[in-house]
Amino acid sequence: MANEVLIEAVNLSKAFGGLIAVDNVSLQVREHTIHAIIGPNGAGKTTLFNLLSGVMPPTSGRVIFKGNDITQVSPQRRAHLGIGRSFQITNIFPNLTVLENIRLAAQAMGKDNFKMLHLADNFRQYIDRAEEVIGVVGLEGREWVLARNLPHGEKRKLELGIMIACSPDLLLFDEPTAGMSSEQVPDLINIIKRVVEHRNRTAILVEHRMDMVMSISNVITVMNQGRVLAEGSPHEIANNPQVQTAYLGDLYGELA
Amino acid sequence: MAEKPVTQKAVKKPMKVKEVGFLVFIALMALLPFVLNLITGTGLNEGVTKFWQGQLIAFFIMAVFAMSYDLLIGFGGILSFGHAASFGGGAYAFGLLMKHWAPNFVKENPIMLGNTDLTMLVVLLVVLLVVLLVSVAVGLLFAVTSMRLKGTYFAMITLALSTALFIIIKSTDLHEWTGADEGLHGISLPVWLNPTQNRLTVYFITLAFLCVSYLLLRRFVNSPTGRVIVANRENEDRMRMIGYNPVTYRTIAFVVASIFAGLAGMFFSIWNMSATPTMISAVTTVNALIMTIMGGMGTLIGPIFGAAISQIIQQFFYTWFGARWPLIFGVLFILIVMFLPYGIVGTWRLQKGNLREGWKRLLRLFTTKSEAEAPESGQKPPSM
Question: Quick one: pLDDT at residue A250?
């Protein structure tokens, strides 16, 4: 694969007091790939996501997006540059309707945010875009439901919908299937595949479900205790003894 | 991507009840002085008729102030305890200029257009402009100082700021200008704007002020900007992740709310012909808070209801209970919060579906011998 690098982490570290959550991580994500990041709990996956999306500043290291250093760029600017993010813990606008949740995200990318004496509902393009996204994530017929009244599975879809409506080039999925039952997962995988393949987007995926990771990702990075343990194709990772050790615990490592 | 789904009435929502209610309100209020005049036989500028005009003027002004406060807390989720600073700021800006600048200016620089004397009009326009500028400045002051704070700290800094302004306005060093503790009295007004001599004019001006403010604010909360301000209330972090800067929108909310509060303060000082330190104190903010909570946060009609009720209650409770009236009012307020946690308008909006269902059930009882209850399903667009 010789695609260009879309986002790159260069020696990225993040320490919370004495705890080093992300330890000198370097990572290159190439365009038009689905790049999965896996690892046991506490490996630093979500912290890495927070650094890439700008939620927190790194202790050291740089983030390069489309060739520009964006380490100091605020999350809202990054959204405009083309980085979208979904959250592990559902993060929506609870007292607004599904349509409004997604419409707000669509509006964010437009140039009408400061028109204070126009009715928002007259900006048809954002509503159209929102309805398109509602179709993609499969929430048709739920437009007028308040987001907090949705069942969990649909909240996860809304979570993705809000991200997709911004039309980002890079999608950061933080455990999209968190808390979902196994029956709901294939549906969500299809949505992710469709969204990423459409317009040749790039995605980084943090996920615990191995079957899902193995089936949809092109590259897998394994993290453990804040460090990159291994990187490679799904096939390489599956047969990597180090990875098996990380997942099974150090006990086997010491015995060997 | 998937083909566009067919959605039921996506954009146009009928707002009939609201529009009709608004027009009825205007008509009622416009006719009221004349009706009172007919019933009681007292002249338009005397006795009972004049008294109730006064009560309603205070209601109109407080309603706008409460709406502007609701824009902050109900729509923006911005819990500011210093909103009275804008109210008092507008009042003092008006009072100071009208007392210390306008009289001399009028005497020394008469502006004539033919035979008509336009001096007063020009003076009032200039004063209005200054009031607007002061309001914007106060709004910006609050927005900038509280920019990085959240939750309790945010509320505390706003309280501290307004208290600081309160103390400055009260200071004896400024006695010559502000009247310190006693407040600024004896604001000179042209005869047509004088609430004792020409109350009916002031009545209609403040009524127009309420109506225009309501329409403008309603437009604002439904504008793209207003919608983002609501999103700020719902989830600030997510808002940031989809590309909005919360500080920008909070600042806009502060400034817009401050402008309406400042204008309300200006009218309040016209109505009282004075500006007092109480107008800047936390008591005034809490009054607006009580009105907003009673009427229903996050609605614009709610604060208007709240202001009306608070005004009526104040009047009657004072005559019934004397100086102890706030005690009784406190109990009543607790009961309202207990039984109508979303305020009057908020609870109505939540319950009107049930009410409608109840009436339908009642009707069904008389019309058909229905075997089982047919549950009504299907989502309705919520009103906003």
Answer: 52
Which strand (E) or helix (H) includes residue B121?
A: helix B119-145
> Does A73 contact chain B (CB < 8 Å)?
no
**Which domains are delineated in chain A?**
1-82+168-256 (3.40.50.300), 91-167 (no CATH)
Rounded mean pLDDT, B262-286: 94
DSSP per position, A86-108:
--SS----TTSBHHHHHHHHHHH
Report residue B365 as tokens: 């009882």
Q: Which of B226, B235, B243 sits opposite A79 (nearest CB)?
A: B243
- Work out whether strand A170-174 and strand A83-85 pair parallel, antiparallel, or are unpaired: parallel
Q: Does B61 contact A at CB distance below 8 Å?
A: no
DSSP letters spanning B42-70: --TTSHHHHHHHHHHHHHHHHHHHHHHHH
The ipTM, to two decimals, is 0.87
Query: Are the C-beta atoms of residues A191 and A180 closer than 8 Å to each other?
Result: no
| Shortest Cα distance, chain B CAs vs residue A85, angstroms | 7
- Cα B206 to the chain's mean position, in Å? 12
Residues 6+ apart with CB under 8 A from B360: B376
What six digits make up the tokens of B216?
């403008």
pLDDT tier at B4 (50, 70, 90 boundaries)? very low
Q: Does A57 touch chain B (CB under 8 A)?
A: no
Beta partners for residue A221, in sequence order: A37, A231
The 10 Å Cβ neighbour count of residue A187 is 14
- Paired residues of A84 in beta bridges: A171
Tokens of A193: 């595949």
Work out how many CB contacts closer than 8 A connect A with B. Answer: 135
* Interatomic CA distance for residues A195 and B149, integer angstroms: 37
User: What is the helix (H) or strand (E) element at residue B134, kind and residue range?
Assistant: helix B119-145
pLDDT in tens, A28-56: 999 989 999 988 888 889 999 999 999 99
B4 touches chain A (CB under 8 A): yes
Strands of A135-226 (E only): list them.
Answer: 170-174, 202-206, 219-224
The whole-number average pLDDT for the span A181-197 is 87
Distances (CA, A) of B154 to A237, B19, B77, B78, B163: 49, 37, 12, 9, 14
CB contact under 8 A, B242 and A166: yes
> What is the arrangement of strands in the sheet containing A34-38, beginning at the earlier edge strand?
A83-85, A170-174, A202-206, A34-38, A219-224, A227-232
* Structure token digits, residue A92: 């929506």
- The answer to whether the beta carbons of residues A222 and A229 sit under 8 Å apart is yes
